[in-house]
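agent> Task received from the user: take the single chain below, predict its 3D structure, and emit structure tokens. No templates, no multimer pairing.
agent> Plan: (1) validate residues, (2) run structure prediction, (3) serialize to tokens, (4) report one or two observations.
agent> Step 1 OK, no nonstandard residues flagged.
tool_call: predict_structure(input=
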Amino acid sequence: MKRIKLGDVFEINTPKGKAYLHYIHKDTMGALIRVLPGLYANRPVNFDMLVSSKERYMIFFPLSAANNRNIVERVSSYPANNFNMPRFMRNSHIIRGEFLGWHIIDTETLQRKLVKNLTTEQKSLSPHEIWNDTLLIDRLVNDWSLYEWSK
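)
tool_result: status=success, residues=151
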């Protein structure tokens, strides 16, 4: 069993190239990762610029399981102390197929606030969800973004 630690950077292969994930927080929902920008034909030689750049979004991901099953590969480490669990995240609120608005989740208290329309700031909030590797790869290949999700 390969142990993971905060700050580890992982590579995941997609049909369009390699993507990179930065493990920054352990929570009751699991490992919170920063999905770093870009897809790459070849592994970068130096990860400093990539890891220090703004992430596409953050998501909870079953990182230990993916690591143990060789779905991801640890390729580097970069201190995670400059990156924190975001105070707020969001989810779409859909009941019986009907979109009713967005839940803004306070990650400290887990209280939810329902809003009908997102502000510009709320559109930049990452999903409060757990994604498996199949969903993550699909979203990466299709260039899914927080702003597209807001429509």
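agent> Step 4: summary for the user.
The longest strand covers residues 17-27.
agent> Done.
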